[in-house]
Amino acid sequence: MVTVYVGVGARRGVPAAEVLELIERSLTEAGTAGLRPSALATVEAKASEAGLLEAAARLGVPLRSYGADALSQVTVPGASAAALAAVGTPAVAEAAALLAAGPGAVLAVGKRKSARATCAVAYGPA
Asked: Hey, how many other C-beta atoms are within 10 angstroms of the C-beta on 90?
């Protein structure tokens, strides 16, 4: 059985509906449509963002957060100078998904974007 973790990044004020739509599209792309992720994950600087908290609540999963230092240690394909300038790490969604999924995690879907959010999907050990 596959365990799915979703990393999310967001601009201030992003609505939960936008985050949820992006998550659903990303899960479909990962071949896991209809599967509820085990957790959403983000950078500590965005952990109190209302849209992310509401999205996690609607999915019935925790919103985990990681420090920029921890996220910046994760090698990802979608590093971003904008993320580095905004929150102190070159990757939020991909790195957070991989950290949440734990050792042996595999990035199933790299960073996807909407107008105000980013999302990535990782598989973790069952």
From this structure: 20
Per-residue confidence of the chain (126 residues) as pLDDT tens digits? 679 999 999 999 999 999 999 999 999 998 887 788 999 999 999 999 999 999 999 999 999 999 999 999 998 887 878 777 778 787 899 999 999 999 999 999 999 999 999 999 999 886
| Separation of alpha carbons 100 and 116, rounded Å | 22
Q: Tell me the C-alpha distance between 27 and 55, whole Å.
A: 14
**Lookup: tokens for 45:** 């600087």
Encoded tokens for 91? 């990757």
> For the whole model, what pTM was predicted?
0.92
Residue 46 CA to residue 93 CA, distance in Å, equals: 11
Residue 69 CB partners (closer than 8 Å, separation 6+): 88, 89
- Give the C-alpha separation, 119 to 9, whole Å: 6
Could you tell me which residues come within 8 angstroms of residue 103 by beta carbon, excluding any fewer than 6 positions away? 125
